[in-house]
Amino acid sequence: MNAEDELLSLPDILSPAELLQMMSLLRESRRIVITAHHGPDGDAVGSALAWGAYLKKIGKKVSICLPSWYPDFLRWMPGSQDIITYYDNASAIRQLLAEADLVCCLDLNNLSRLNQMEEAVAATKAPRILIDHHVEPQTEQFKLVVSRPDMSSTCELVFRIIWQLGGYEHMSRSTAACLYTGIMTDTGNFSYSSNDPLLFLSVSLIMRKNIDKESIYKKIYHSWSQGKFTLWNDTLSQCLSFHASGHASVFTLTREQMKAHKFLRGDAEGLVNEPLKVRGMKLSISLREDTEENVVRVSLRSTAGFHCREMAERFFNGGGHEDAAGGKLPFPIEEARNTAIKAIEAYETQLINKPSPS
Description:
about 350 residues, 6-stranded mixed sheet, about 15% strand
């Protein structure tokens, strides 16, 4: 190993016991189903595609089955055309699960995050592996749990596992692009959850696969339709309200608005982060009417020393990361908005008085 290669080596992410169990489960499996959380984002899709590519390289028959559709701006990702969604192919996915030797659940800490697909995955007789970076995993639901909440993303974790399993040498440029996409999107283009030097060591190794990170960035962040642009403008100018002396905000997004702006899947992703650009803002809450189910999807983002996960659990039937959480509420959206305001009022003292870090 030359000096440069030694510099670019990563410590093992799996313990000896985890490694032995992972290798045993993979060795004993031929047909593998990979899934991720409902409303899959760049990290969920990227980690599923990358893990699937690795498993195919070692001779496995792989099916990627997601509970719902992924955003349109991720359709360029290599291999995404082979993803099957439960909304469109429930019976086919149930059959694949029935025939599977192994089920890999990525980027979720609980089978409940599979939404309508939960029952089918829970019913499978195949062992389940969890690979995830969310807190409080439901360990009893899985044969093997690889949970690393300190990781920036599930894609970073999947890369570290592939590296340890010896799959890096044969990793394709396409697989590397999927991994980079998940890391980039789950860190807001490295603006949060990205202080660990080992993350950037992993990224440097991914970059060695000759990916075009500028092109990936443009495909994710600079491919807006006119409808998305006007939707964001309309929402932030007409549907946003400030609370807790300007330290919290709430906005709503209805089906009527989405229809008016020719909404495409993923058009609202990232919108919840915009109010955090306001000086002094510590909490942003997004309330969006789901286009497939009669629920209101809730997204929370926090910063400056206030953490939103507890609020998500207490008021919105949800959870997540300390500063990026979510949940859902029943219709109508007016009642959901009232719940959001009550949640802010319950934490108003913390929002107003908790000092921002210097």
